[in-house]
Amino acid sequence: MDGRSNYDETISRQYRELIEHCKSHLEEMDDTLPEPVEDFQTLLQERGISRRSFLKWTSATTAALMLSPLFRPMVAKAAEQFSRLPVVWLHFAECTGCSEALLRSSYPNVDSILLDTISLEYHETLMAAAGYQAEENLERALHDFAGKFICVIEGALPKGMGGKYLTIGPKGKTGLEIAKEVTSKSAAVICIGSCSSFGGVQAAKPNPTDAVSVGDALGITTVNLGGCPPNPANFTGTLLHFLLFGALPPLDSLGRPIWAYGKRIHDFCERRPHYDAGEFVEEWGDRGAKKEWCLYKMGCKGPYTFANCAKVRFNDGTSWPVMAGHGCMGCTEPGFWDTMAPYEKPIADKTIGGGEKTVDKIGAVLTGVTVAGIAAHAGLSAIRHREKDKE
Amino acid sequence: MEAIVPKKEWSAAMRINHWATAFAIVVLIVTGFYIAKPFTIGAGETVDKFFMGSVRFWHIFCGVLLFFLFIWRIYMAFFSRFHADWKDFFAWTDWKNFMKQIKFYLLISNEKPEHNYLYGPLQALAYMGLLFLLLLINLTGLILLGAGYDAGWTHLVYVALKPFETMMGGLAMVRWIHHILTWCFILFIVVHVYMAFWYDAVFKEGTISSMISGRVFRRGHNE
Amino acid sequence: MSKRIVVDPITRIEGHLRIEVEVDDNVIRDAWASTTLWRGIETILKGRDPRDAGLMVQRFCGVCTYSHYEASILACEDAFGVKPPPIARIVRNLINGAQFLTDHVMHFYHLHGLDWVDIVSALSADPRKAVEMAKGYHPNPYNCSDTHYRSVQERLTKFVKSGRLGPFANAYWGNESYKLPPEADLIILSHYLDALQISKTGAQMMAIFGGKNPHPQTLVVGGVTSVADALDTHRVGQYLFRLKEMKNFVETAYIPDILLAATYYKDEGAAGIGSGVKNYLAYGGFPLDDDWHNLLFPRGVVEGGDIADPLPLDEKKITEEVHHSWYKGGEGLHPFEGTTDPQYTGFDAKGHVKGDEKYSWCKAPQYDGRPHEVGPLARIIVAYAQGHEEIKGLVDDTLKVADLPVTVLFSTLGRTAARALETKYIGNHIEDWVEELVERIKGGDTRTWTRCDVPKAGEGCGMLEVSRGALGHWVRIDNKVISNYQAVVPTTWNAAPRNKAGGRGPYEESLIGTRMADVDQPLEILRTIHSFDPCMACAVH
Ligand code: HEM
Ligand code: HEM
Ligand code: NFV
Ligand code: SF4
Ligand code: SF4
Ligand code: F3S
Ligand SMILES: [Mg+2]
Question: E strands, chain A, where?
Fold first, then answer.
């Protein structure tokens, strides 16, 4: 009895402390962050976002971040801070899919408000200035917000040839040089997407440009939002967490926020009952495909992939790869371009040295050879030992 | 006086361990292949079926069994009251005898290798390799198992083994390595069982039954 | 005195592009386009299962996220000798249609708009007059009221006064070459904000059959996987509903805004500013039958701006040259023989491109040995030259409204207008495809995949029209794996460096003769380069 109430007491004390911490942190942010670009409430109104849908958004986000509903007012407050958080967004070896993902950020339009009202100091795909003027903007942001801005990085860093596979700016600096300079002044580094987090497509074998993740290239700790591209909710959630607590969310051993990457696709998949039942799509477009059976045999890599796609889905909850009948290819995992291939076959059909040489084929041949060897050996030794016995 | 005498080679514990291991492995191979390449259970309603679920249950059941059998076997190698045989696994370091045995097995020479240890050099190497295989398949199996759990001992084990997962290149690679190891076991069993029969036939010491009765029959002296 | 101007990074595009120009008396006399990132994905594809190529090449680009996926699948289907069933063809068109609508709208408003629109000048606009002006271009303009315009203005005022302009900081506001009156600036600016929302609608259209956007995951060699979505009337309804929203935006915002801009920039158009190489190439796109005979966009070639003499397309005349690209190699090669072997030589001592040597990661594709422009303008011109009834009608009607001659098309303005026109054209046809889909399903045809397997050896090419122009992928298969893979991409054509003979690429050529209002502000360069909708990740991959 006593132990139980002690336990409850500890929990509620922890909550109180956390909430206090949150509140004081948000107040501190109020003082230290630059002036708001716009007033958040009018902004909501202008976007035609009702208070109700904003509240809905805050409760969804609170839940997604695995916080108690008690935090809802603070999540709302942190959302207001968004418009003041200086962000410098760098592009290296990438495809801009991650930027695009953020532009199509889902769940009530609030996310997109957040997007264009984060104080985006530098973003090559969106900013109006180019060339020298763009460079000036970057320099100014580094100077004005030193130690305060968040550096978001999209794209891997090619290390080959001294980094010359990528140069940016009038002075032709390499991506490596720019990354080193900017990250050294930022409050935190968020790697958005598999490229900056783990190397991405350009780092797939044989990795001709020796592309590596930002963390590996610079030897720094980064938040790694795996995914190609990652779900934008994971980005906004991470930023919100930063604003709420003044620290990055708890990360797994690969630097991914646990609240978003803590569980496997396979464990949340709507087709899981079909997996357990033994009902599989055997061929694209077959009966099972029409009935939305499990895609394991078509190469779904959900069992090996940690991500919240099944729960959050993409584009305002419209769909996700398994729903589209294709299956997951494990895009949130490091090295997935190599480890998850072939993408349309289960892992058991992975080949050794390409072509047709699956483990099962090699195994069967080896077993055959062994059995043949055994037969020969048995025959020979029968002859040999019979001779010997006769002697 | 020389006679054929029964000699107790294996303790009961060792025999139980061996056959339980053998049983677990056979079940694991069969269920493992279904998990790797399942066929569809077409008839019936989804809610009434749980085929993959059951196969996974038995695989995991035998997997965990195998894990404990393995721990037990390692324990016996060091602390068996009957015969702690860990030294015997190093019989292959006797190179001369090793070559002798290879020649004998390849039917090149008729000279029998000496049995200075519990195992001949080749057996020692094979069983040591096998224990290593067992270690790996247990390791990969436990990772695959723990990945699906958020709590409980499986989860704790998973957290502890996570560095190995990362080292191997992620869960998918763990699964693939697990699959490759399965074939190693198949190859082993084929050779292992054949060798047991061959030994039986050539040495006439009752090798096969020894794993059941615990006794071999050696030419030697009555004690 | 001639002066060298370096613009790097070119912003509001995908990827890493440097433009250098020689300016004499404020007029551009020479130009070089250099792409400054190489990732080597063609090399990475070697030795892989050809069925995996689609998802991988998709990562060439997250903007035209669908384009390379389909190109690769088509190349493999050619090599495998397989044809997707009609429903798969339709679903692909539906996804590609969504791609065009989204891409073009985003391009005009978010990537290109600020080259035409001075957002600071919008502050001094009279919202009521703006309403009147907007009604002059469409009877019922998008999100048009003086209260709305005023609130946009107020937001902007606050933004400017705060001194923190974020992405709009340090740009070229007030530059002489901005021609729009403040009211027009305000109208287009308000649509800039609306377009942020509407582009999400377009992305949802893609996600309905594609699983997600960017990077949909639904194509396979032989068909599509989203059979459950295609057969679901509810899903089809969701698509149609969003299509209506998109079309409404195109009709009541995008097209009127283009006409509005054209009114004030028409002199530039008439003067042919930004015309470029004037050779146009189109592979043809959006198959309306299963053999690609009947296409929404025709295939063909127009040389030297001669619309009186359209030519047929001959795939064998396509080569890629690397004389001025950072790769090893001699003569131009057909993509089946193509190689991608880096040989980087860097910039000169002053930090400028070595214009006479190699100076870009972009290769120089040639058709019949000459550089060609691809893209919406090329598509429209090829169709116009071939006398394509509907497209010709659309172009002629528009020109009539704006009171412009057809030659105005050969310009920066023409390129931008062509993009808007084709958006409308595609939008008008998507409903037919949905109808065909429904009819076929009603008739009992639910096939979405044709069975096929990787051939032991083979080769194939996939050629189609994507948002930025003519896209081709060429694949060679040996021992069931890819032995060579070459992609020649719209932006590769347009951003090409000089060819063997020293002829400039389309970007380079289009800048020649342009007068800059202020040589320290590269606004005119941006305007013309942006009119191509550059995508460097595509171009170089
Ligand atoms: C034909 C009958 C068999 C005989 C006579 C036999 C005999 C033996 C012997 C003498 C050993 C070495 C003892 C030891 O180190 O523990 C051994 C080890 C082993 N056997 Fe067998 N075996 C037989 C069948 C099998 C089968 C069918 C399997 C598996 C399916 C199997 C699996 C193993 C394994 C895994 C080991 C090594 C692990 C260990 O050392 O405990 N055996 N066997
Ligand atoms: C000789 C021993 C074993 C054999 C032959 C074996 C075989 C297999 C095979 C063939 C697979 C399928 C792999 C694939 O998809 O390619 C598999 C999966 C698996 N095995 Fe084993 N296994 C063994 C031991 C174990 C052990 C010791 C454990 C755990 C304690 C274990 C747990 C699992 C799990 C959890 C899976 C994955 C099932 C799933 O994802 O649902 N296995 N095994
Ligand atoms: N160029 C190009 Fe793409 C397009 N449209 C590719 O095929 O943009 Ni990224
Ligand atoms: S992670 Fe994927 S989507 Fe993001 S930039 Fe890299 S390739 Fe593109
Ligand atoms: S579709 Fe994929 S994630 Fe879903 S249950 Fe099947 S294997 Fe698991
Ligand atoms: S492929 Fe990627 S998007 Fe999600 S479902 Fe798989 S992790
Ligand atoms: Mg190429």
Answer: 86-91, 119-123, 150-154, 157-158, 167-168, 173-174, 188-192, 211-212, 223-225
Give the closest of B46, B110, B198 to A279, CB-based.
Answer: B46
- The domain total for chain B is 1
- C173-190 confidence digits (pLDDT tens): 999 999 999 999 999 999
User: Where does CATH 3.40.50.700 sit in chain A?
Assistant: 2-260
Instruction: Give me the CATH topology for the region A263-390.
Output: Cytochrome-c3 Hydrogenase; Chain A, domain 2 (4.10.480)
Task: Tell me the CA distances in angstroms from C381 to A26, C294, C369, one per residue in order.
Answer: 58, 18, 20
- The ipTM is 0.95
Residues of A in contact with C478 (CB under 8 A): none
CA distance B221 to chain A (A): 23
CATH number reported for the structural domain that contains residue B148 in this entry: 1.20.950.20
Distance A235 CA to ligand 7 centre (A): 32
- When CB atoms are compared, the residue of C39, C44, C480 closest to A205 is C44
Domain of residue B147: give its range.
2-221
Q: Which chain A residue has its CA at the smallest distance from C447's CA?
A: A285
| Element (DSSP H or E) covering residue A51 | helix A51-64
Residue A380 at interface with chain B, using a CB cutoff of 8 Å: yes
pTM above 0.90, yes or no: yes
User: Minimum-distance ligand to the CA of B89?
Assistant: 1
In single-letter form, the type of residue at position A314 comes to F
pLDDT at B47: 93
- B116 vs C153, which has greater pLDDT? C153
- Check if CATH label 3.40.50.700 holds for domain A2-260: yes
* CB of residue A295 inside a 6 A radius of ligand 6: no
How close is the Cα of C489 to the center of ligand 3, in Å?
7
Contacts of B104 (CB under 8 A, 6+ apart): B110, B111, B112, B113
- Within 8 A of A341 by CB-CB distance, chain B residues are none
Beta-carbon contacts of B177 under 8 Å, excluding residues fewer than 6 positions away, are: B136, B140, B168
Q: Minimal CA–CA distance to B137: which of B188, B197, B202, B88?
A: B188
Q: How are beta strands C223-224 and C219-220 bridged, if at all?
A: antiparallel
